Amino acid sequence: MKNNILFEKHFQIKGGDFQNGGWVSTEIKGILKQLGLDFKLIRRVAIAAYEAEMNVVIYAKRADLSLIITPEKIKIIVDDEGPGIENLELAMKSGYSTAPPKIREMGFGAGMGLPNMKKNSDYFKIETQVNKGTTVKMEFLLNSH
How far, in Å, CA of 102 to CA of 93, rounded? Predict the structure, then answer.
């Protein structure tokens, strides 16, 4: 598997860093544009990456985001140190949010992050452990759309 990786980059996301929130997804979008990928695919990846990034900024202490590109797909893996998700089934419902009022006043926490990640990716898996953290794995097929 390792030998068919065309590109790999790792990013650090800091919890609570609203000033830089969105920077990683913008970087990813730029990388995909430089590679000349389809605009619709780039948009889907950028939306999913942004949602994942902002969930880290809002809820977690920190996270590592990995961008891996193979000849077949783009993979994004976000591994955070955070509170975990108590009720994953509920968290996957559009509009459900545990964001505090302060976050909502800033325009975040509408409960669309996880649903948008799932909707925009071809493969979506989330593993979470309360008081430990959450890992989100998303894949986007290069020849699917």
Answer: 22
**Number of Cβ within a 10 Å radius of residue 32:** 23
Average pLDDT of the chain is: 95
Order of strands, sheet of 62-69, starting from the edge strand that comes earlier in the sequence: 7-14, 62-69, 73-81, 133-141, 123-129
**CATH label, 2-141, candidates 3.40.920.10, 3.30.565.10, 3.40.50.150, 3.40.50.300:** 3.30.565.10
Whole-model pTM: value is 0.94
* Orientation of helix 113-120 relative to helix 39-59, angle to 10°: 150
Q: What is the pLDDT of residues 134-144, one digit of tens each?
A: 999 999 999 86
**CB 140: neighbour CB atoms within 10 A?**
23
